[in-house]
Amino acid sequence: MPNFQTRGSTNMPKLFSSFGAVVLAVVALAACGSSKSSTTTTSSTSTSASTLTTPATDAAIAAKVPAAIKSKGTLVVASDATYAPNEFIASDGHTVVGMDPDLVNALAAVMGLKAHFINATFDTIIPGLAAGRYDLGASSFTDTKEREKTVDFVTYFTAGESFYAKSSSNPTINSLSDLCGKSVAVEKGTTEEEEVKAQSAKCVKEGKPAPTLLVFPTQNGTNLAVASGRAELGMADSPVVDYAVKQSGGTLKVVGPTLASAPYGLAFPKGTGMTEPTLEALKVLMADGDYTKILTKWGVQAGAITNPGINQAKS
Please, which residues bridge with residue 20 across strands? Predict the structure, then answer.
């Protein structure tokens, strides 16, 4: 599948330093990710925006919502809820919360709609959009040229990529070229997976050992691999790495620099007519301060942008 990326509550269990405690903590965390299994799609309506003021409906923007969406009054939104603080499962075990759910709830309100969230495995979301199962994908998707062949994006955020490791280890990472010979854990379907694969070919071409790539269905599995020592390094979007390190109780640390940033986009099936009203609603949230409040609530305000648009992929 071509380059379909990246990609609970704030009281999620911490990872502990001993291997046994790490397993227990992360198994508990993973159990919060789905009422069934990590590959089973479950549904929940997000209530995370309840701590924020619900924006008023903008009649002019609501009038631009396509009839097919307006008639049902609800956006069906797919998120891989293992990517805290952007999207994850609350302590009730089923509610999808985070920066993305809060933002989508606010956008929906401006457009006169409600949002219904479905917790879906990350690499199934874009195919699900193409198949018409979802109206919107809100799951920390990096807007890329390859993905724009399948979906349209409304950009709303920017994030870099970071590496993390056990605090007791000391791997040297200054760039992707330093991955040669190291074991690296990533979430399936992410741009991080694609970049490690590309670097692997470069390592071999240079006569160096290829990195050992460990791919997991969810970010929870990726974090466990690093915390338990199965992988020397983990690689994920910078806000997610920062959050995982803070929640690890000293077990994990950020290593190396943050790589070049790229835009996140809300993903829509091609031709639905939802990109324009969503972009206008986003500009309303930016103008009235709700956008900044949502990002600040989750500690990710460093990724705020001022120039949202449609299909703004850098590569």
Answer: none
- Are the C-beta atoms of residues 129 and 283 closer than 8 Å to each other? no
Percent of the chain with pLDDT over 70: 84
Question: Which residue's structure tokens are 């509550």?
Answer: 9
pLDDT at 51: 63
Q: Which two tokens stand for residue 138?
A: 């809100």
- 105 burial (CB, 10 Å; 0-12 / 13-18 / 19+) is buried
- pLDDT confidence of residue 52: 84
C-alpha–C-alpha distance, residues 292 and 53, integer Å: 13
Report residue 139's pLDDT band, with 50, 70 and 90 as the boundaries.
very high
Give residue 315's pLDDT.
87
Max CA distance (Å), the chain: 62
Residue 39 has pLDDT above 70, yes or no: no
Model confidence at 150: pLDDT above 80: yes
Residues in contact with 101: Cβ distance below 8 Å, sequence separation at least 6, in sequence order: 46, 48, 49, 77, 79, 87, 115, 117, 138
List b or e across 78-87, with b for residues whose CB sees 16 or more CB atoms inside 10 angstroms: bbbbbbbbbb
